[in-house]
UniProtKB/TrEMBL annotation:
Keywords: Membrane, Transmembrane, Transmembrane helix. The chain crosses the membrane at residues 21-40, 60-81. This is Uncharacterized protein.
Length: 91
């Protein structure tokens, strides 16, 4: 009986460890992706927005950048929430 409990505890530990590793690696890759998007959007704003508004490009570029990032964050969060609801993993 004690052996069975110990095996169950080990199995539970390994499952939780695997879940944590997946969470950590997903977070790490998410950070890398966010940094890549950050740089891509900044480059887009510099190359296309500042061409049309060269004298006022500082403030306008930052607002456009903030709007793009906000839209992207809301879109991704919404899609992930729908996916989580579909699989019943919403916490």
């Amino acid at each position: 009986m004690a052996k069975q409990t110990k095996k169950q505890e080990e199995k539970s530990f390994h499952r939780e460890l695997a879940e944590q590793l997946v969470t950590l690696s997903t977070s790490g890759f998410g950070l890398v992706a966010a940094l890549a998007w950050n740089e891509a959007i900044q480059t887009f704003v510099k190359e296309y927005v500042q061409v049309f508004y060269p004298s006022q490009s500082g403030a306008i570029s930052k607002f456009i950048y903030a709007i793009i990032i906000t839209f992207f964050a809301v879109f991704v969060t919404y899609q992930l929430s729908r996916l989580a609801a579909r699989f019943g993993t919403k916490k």
